[in-house]
Amino acid sequence: MSGWRSKAGRSRSGSTSLALAVVAASTIAGVTMAGAASAPGRPATANTATAPAASASEASPPAGTIPMAASELYLLYRNKSWQWADGAGRMADEDRRFTAWVESDKGKSWAEGRWLVTDAGTMCLKADWHSAEGVFPGKTCFAHRIGDGTIYQRQVPDGAWYVFRHADGRADDEAKKLVSADLVTDHIDSLKPVRRPKQSPMKQQSRK
Length: 208
Fold this sequence. Notes:
alpha+beta, 5 helices, ten-stranded antiparallel beta sheet
């Protein structure tokens, strides 16, 4: 399994944040976003650009690896915030709740939904993204394989495999961006519109 690189060591444009943020950003922009697809892969959503093609080695599962079990993915992501360049997403243990926010020059967006794991090594983030233009459903999935303690990840369906976490845990591992601190709840609360309480007919009449 030598020769495999972390995402930071691979020459691809974009960032992991765009793998999820493109869902929100595309709804904010309302148009196709050229170059918005993340490294690695392309979100399974409409109005996104195609990511650069993976090399032959990156397109095939790493040799000597097996899909991660749902229990392993659960321990990897539960109660963690995933830091992105333009926001963050959080995978809460309670009800497998997924929340996220994104802020860019295109606008602001926030999401609420669920995160799901399978024994096929897949972790999916399914949520409704809220922006000034409305509410839009989105789903992004990542495949995971493990071998000799190293975790590999790619974005489904056609992302390139890369080292998500080295066995010895390196500083540039994408997994280092999974932190226990809640980087989402307070932020999306500030983005949600204020809901004013409805007044009873009696109070409305008294004002006349």
